[in-house]
Amino acid sequence: MATILNPYISFRGEARAALEFYHSVFGGELDLRPFADFDFAKTDNPADDAKIMHGHLRGLNGLNIMASDTPESMEWKGGSAISITLSGEDKDELQGYWDKLSEGAAIGEQLAQAPWGDWFGMLRDKFGIDWMVNIAGSPSA
């Protein structure tokens, strides 16, 4: 098996909703495992039982996203210092991802042709995750 780089996103109670949303965007297989499924992971707070200890979206075309909830008993720093980037040449596919991710998002830069010839856009989705989409194009003459 080849090495795979997966974003692993930490949430505070929104992992299930976020992964279900990303599943609607990218398709594929979604595996959600709550804390209650694992004896070693149970906390003293019953409200944490339904939260996601480990979630994995195996999207189409090799796209993978992993995520979990941080229990109330643990420190959660929130926010993000990275952006998840989708890049490629299939404009219809990437435009479709952009359109779906845009639902409820704050658009930083609309997806449009950039000076370097590619189509590029940035947004922060409704779960606070930053995304960039870059569709390979050809430079203007």
TrEMBL record:
SUPFAM superfamilies reported for this sequence: Glyoxalase/Bleomycin resistance protein/Dihydroxybiphenyl dioxygenase
CDD domains, alphabetized: PhnB_like
Annotated InterPro entries: Glyas_Bleomycin-R_OHBP_Dase (IPR029068), PhnB-like (IPR028973)
Transmembrane segments: none
One Pfam family recorded for the sequence: 3-dmu-9_3-mt
Ranges of residues in domain PhnB-like: 7-133
Highest rank taxon of the organism: Bacteria
PANTHER family associated with the record: PROTEIN YJDN, PROTEIN YJDN-RELATED
UniProt protein name: PhnB protein
Upper lineage: Bacteria, Bacillati, Actinomycetota, Actinomycetes, Micrococcales
